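Here is a protein:
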Amino acid sequence: MSRKKALIITDGTKPIRLIALPLKEALADYKVKICPAKKFAGTDLLSADIFFIGCKRPKPKSFTYLEDFFSHINLVSRKCGIFSVNEKSLNYLKGILANSEVNLGEPLLAAEDGIEKTTINKWVNKLL
């Protein structure tokens, strides 16, 4: 039996990396790929059982392709977690995912200096 796959798409900023790394650890039963948005290809998402998206600020330049991509794909059977260090970014992420009909769990709002592993683990378990 092959392992489930998870994809974490980030804007590449340090605060988002500080969330993505413990997030990868929390997904111990998954084969996890952390992908900067500027290197994201739609095919990366095809094999993922669950995916996560995080950005520090709303509308990062590297998310232009993601905005277009998620407006033209139906992900009704997929689960997604969004995370950021500010509320406006979480609202932005909800907005770009709205048309995709993805199963969006509760967003994760973290501090810029990182987040406790127990908090990440609880959040991931709710999504799974």
Notes: The longest helix spans residues 14-26.
